[in-house]
Amino acid sequence: MAQLLPSSLVLALVFSATDVILCTENKGCVARSFGYDSVVCECNSTYCDSVGPVSLPPLGQYSSYLSSRAGSRMEAGQGQVQVSSSGAGLRLTILPYQKYQRIKGFGGAMTDAAAINILSLSAGAQEQLLRQYFSKDGISYSVVRVPMASCDFSTRLYTYADTPGDYDLKNFTLAQEDMNMKIPLLLRAQAMSPCPLSLLGSAWSAPAWMKTNGALTGKGSLKGQPGGKEHKTWAQYYIRFLEQYAKYNLTFWALTTGNEPSAGRMTNYSFQALGFTPEEQRDWVALDLGPALQSSSHPHTHILILDDNRLLLPHWAKVVLSDVHAARYIHGVAVHFYMDSLVPAEISLGATHQLYPEYYLFGTEACAGWGPLDRGVKLGSWDRAEKYAHDIIEDLNHYVVGWTDWNLALDQTGGPNWVKNFVDSPVIVDAKRDVFYKQPSFYSMAHFSKFLQEGSQRVGVSTSGKTQLEFSAFVRPDGSVVLIVLNRSSSTIQFEVWDQGVGYIPCTAPAHSLLTVINGLLAVFYNLGDGDYNISLPYHRLDDGEWHEVELDRYGREFTLRLDGGGGRFEITASPGQSQEIIIDPSVVMLGNSFPSGHNRSFLGCLRDVRFNGRSIPLDQDQHSEGLQVLVASQGVSVGCYSDACRKHHCSPPLVCVDLWRQHDCRCPPGHMTKETSLGRVCIYTLCASRPCRHGTCVAHSLSRYSCHCSEGYRGRHCEVALAVFHSEGGNSLSLSSMFAISICVMAFLVLMLGLFLYSCWRRHKGLKEGVYHVSAHHGEWEDIRENVLNYDEEGGGEQDQNAFNMVELQRSLQPSPAQSLRYSYTQNTSSNPQTKLPQDNNKKGMSNGNGSAAIALRLSIPPSEAETLSSPLTFRRSQRAFSFSSQDLARYLCEVIRDMEHTEDPGTMTTPRRPSGKERNLASVRSLSSLSASQGSEVRLHAGQITRMDTFRTLRAVMCDLRGDSKTPDSQRDKLRESRGQLKCEKNG
């Protein structure tokens, strides 16, 4: 449950076709055609079509306002807001959570020519003309540019200090054009305006005696250097101008550094100009104008640099704003409309904003009919109205905060202008008939100035596809939404506008047209898995400036919306759709990341006492945790609600009005101390008022002492030194996704290390158990050695064979054997050792003599010192485990020999022609098998009888494979081989 301050929703769309839209209660246009592509609206002292004040339509409906090339001007229409889409091919979606710059305002210039033309009408017509521009029934201009002395739209050349050598400006005085024309008209306009006018002063030229060329026109700049007497006198000229106008209760919001400084550097320039390079302007602001303004009675007046065509950006801004001494006095950059087609807005305006986002961009001059091929006045030209709208939308979409037209009114020739530089104007005066004509460009301006009040903020707009429409959307201070769409094409475009807080609005954009749609009601939008739905209260609007209580209940797929306790027309229950599972928009809910900025997608207004499931959610950042502070701040929630209180109450300068929600307070501007006196509240100037801290907060310790608390990433006395600082969206703490990724990496590393450790242990254990043997790289030597081993008893000559080949490769092991050494001995069955004597087999056949069977014994030779330690049974068993070795090594080797030999032809039954002596046999065995460092502290005996060579091969293979547990040798075959007379036995002696 929450209490909400109602906020209306206004949707304004502008199309550059022949139609323009404005407001309710409008009076019809008295159209007149002068032969161009559209018409003008004629006004006199008694009648003029008017826009009327902006008002909201009935609930559930929208209002539209259209002007077109065909002749429509502010024609009102209404329609019903749709719950579902109309299926139009193009959809424009309002994105209120994408926020950009805030609007300052729109207006025109009160030149000498404009004042002359307005005053040429009768009193009634004058009143009508001023009301069309400045009243709430008109188009609500809020900015007026005022030339300081003469310009080309004057009837003569003059300045306020034409006395040569008057460096003290003792003879400074306003001209008759100011006293009799501009000041009285400005006061009348101010009285009509519902809000204070923002006055903007611009000088065209310094007095001739201050300039290098000694003339107001042509190529010329100030004499001397910045900081010199001419430059300081020119700065004081600005201060005197402000002081003189202040005597008539006209205070200036801003001053520019001079109109079109590039013109003053052109040879034979035809009218008033004062040349500056960006470096000269930078130094003049830093040394002269800035300090003079801050030490004057008008320190709150803004300084805008450039005041020239945007093709000079961003270079001009880089030179001036990169200097901390000049930048501290500057608030914005002023740009002109001319030659915009030569340079894209993105590389001029957009680039400047990206470089210096803290300085706003403001359009200070524009007019039609200035080009050599399109000169002067064209009554009824819609093409010029389209150019206005196109340029304004382009500028606004590239961070410009306001747009000022040139002359408020001109005559039918486009003057007066002393140099005959005639141009067009939104209002053309026909003094002879006591009428004035509102051009199509007047209505083009109206679409922006009428709806985009000061404080409106540009928001995002998305399209469902490519389109020829140009558009820009804004949220006004009252929470209403304005969408301006321009259609410059020659065809009608059907589309719909969707706003989450309103619904779907079907629209038609005729060729060359502008449109405005207004609506507001309480509604709730949701999605339970089977589509978007909303429920709303169609009988009550929340635009009465009062607090209301809103309650939303959900049970399954049933929603109940209550206003101020509910009941009757204050309550509605609906259950559209079939599903009950809420679908969360992933663009709003962020998992494992920082909160997005500005994701408020619905309510705009004042909010308090928010509860969820009966639990209070504090919105005051001082009352909740750090995590909730981030969430609340990311939604654009701030303490305090602001109304239009300051628009209805004015504070005497230098006091500034502070909106306290339906109340106001007059406070001193930043950098000043407040003191209460008998005369009221007084602001005392401190050095902080000069904005000395470039990137930080100024803290005044006294009137003359201050210190700068620098923002993160900046250092220095004035916070002017930028540091290379890494900024993380999530702050100093890691996000959940980052922590998860790091944890996975650490676990993977640990698993890898564990795997390497286990593999190392396995390899070490395997090496101790089975041994590692050196293998010769020369396979040929191996073949000869194998043959020597196999043929020793059968072929004879082993003693020669064993010396015929290099046995070193087989005798050397890759690593020391744990058994230290192996001794292989050929032992007769008559051995003196009774434990190793074998029973004689009397049934042997095929023997050449009666000797018993032979046995080859492999014994582990242990050094005496180690043998003593193995005397005990326990120690011996431990030694067996420590020197663990498998007889499978011998099996593998002999099986490899057998496999190789099976590929040769069977030699048949062979008998040994000569039996070598025991000594010879012993030596051959030792040398042939010494490379097999296998031992388990036991003996492996091989008994061989006189058998055929092939039988020997098969017997050895069966026995060796049996040792390995080779399943390829059938059991029946192994049993048969064991029963054979000449079998080879493998015994394991404990």
From TrEMBL:
It is a peripheral membrane protein. It catalyses: beta-D-glucosyl-N-(9Z-octadecenoyl)-sphing-4E-enine + cholesterol = N-(9Z-octadecenoyl)-sphing-4-enine + cholesteryl 3-beta-D-glucoside; beta-D-glucosyl-N-octanoylsphing-4E-enine + cholesterol = N-octanoylsphing-4-enine + cholesteryl 3-beta-D-glucoside; a beta-D-xylosyl-(1<->1')-N-acylsphing-4-enine + cholesterol = cholesteryl 3-beta-D-xyloside + an N-acylsphing-4-enine; a beta-D-glucosyl-(1<->1')-N-acylsphing-4-enine + H2O = an N-acylsphing-4-enine + D-glucose. Pfam families: EGF, Glyco_hydro_30, Glyco_hydro_30C. Disulfide bonds join C688-C698, C710-C719. It comes from the Eukaryota. The keyword Cell membrane does not apply. It is found in: Lysosome membrane. Residues 819-841 have a biased composition (Polar residues). Pathway: Lipid metabolism; Steroid metabolism; cholesterol metabolism; Sphingolipid metabolism. Residues 819-851, 964-990 are annotated as: Disordered. Residues 684-720 form the EGF-like domain. One of its GO terms (molecular function) is glucosyltransferase activity. Its main location: membrane. Keywords: Disulfide bond, EGF-like domain, Glycosidase, Hydrolase, Lipid metabolism, Membrane, Signal, Sphingolipid metabolism, Transmembrane, Transmembrane helix. Residues 1-23 form the signal peptide. InterPro entries: ConA-like_dom_sf, EGF, GH, GH30_C, Glyco_hydro_30, Glyco_hydro_30_TIM-barrel, Laminin_G. Its EC number is 3.2.1.45. PANTHER family: GLUCOSYLCERAMIDASE, LYSOSOMAL ACID GLUCOSYLCERAMIDASE. Belongs to the glycosyl hydrolase 30 family. This is Glucosylceramidase. It comes from Crenichthys baileyi (White River springfish). The lineage of its organism: Eukaryota, Metazoa, Chordata, Craniata, Vertebrata.
